[in-house]
Amino acid sequence: MKYEGMIFRPPSEADSLILQVTVGCSYNRCTFCGAYQGKRFRMKRFEEIKEDIDEVSSYKIRRVFLADGDALIIPQEELIRILSYLKANLRGLERIGIYANAKDILRKEVKELRALKDLGLGILYLGLESGDPEVLKRIKKNATVDQLIRAGKRVKESGILLSVTVILGLGGVEGSQPHAIETGKVLSEMDPDYVGALSLMIVPGTPIEREIETGELVLPTPFGLIQELEWMITHSHFTHCFFASNHASNYLPLRIRLPEQKEEALQRIREVLRRKDPALLRPEYLRAL
What we know:
Layout: E1 17-20, E2 22-23, E3 42-43, H1 46-56, E4 63-67, H2 76-89, E5 95-100, H3 102-106, H4 110-118, E6 121-129, H5 133-138, H6 145-158, E7 161-168, H7 176-190, E8 194-199, H8 207-214, H9 222-234, E9 241-244, E10 255-258, H10 262-275
């Protein structure tokens, strides 16, 4: 496999073959993200992708994840070509996953997404980050709340599993409560199959680092981040969702089914907030991006 630069994938794709079909991120201006710094965006030629697929075609591969940052930007005909080749050449292939942003999703009709699903695209990862319009503007998300909700609903309508990422702490201390509550409300409207909650960790060289240094943004304390988690879950109402805050960036790892385990989870969070015992939290030295 020929990779260019650092490769990132969702935690749930740890056992997947990572197939790099784009290099970098077509937008690459979110203030908190340093994942694709120094990468100039391009779509790989089919011949390059085919070579990588041929290299692993003798192995039994159950899952494939298409990297980099927003591979759904690839034109429909070319995506169909890639998925078709994967399906024809990887024995045992069960699911293909992909990152996407709201605008890339909205450029595709439901029938186009269904065509990709028929070829094995089983899950799509969408970064919501926040449901607060002010936070989205400040982090230069390049999508409005309405666009994000419509994108999420479009994925659900297509039958592709929807996994949404949110980031605790993005609103800072001042915007902590509206960030968490509005995020919970937007998640409810999307009604995703999976939610992954991360905590904001500052990547050197990003614009948000400068906001921290100047005092423009003040990060919540560890217990402040856990309070956000409580607000977010309290204001979330799902049909059937697996909610996880077990990413290495978080102080309080949770893996829960909602709505079934909502009250149980809230009781646990509230007990941690009541006791405010640092021993109940993931140690700082174990936290990572």
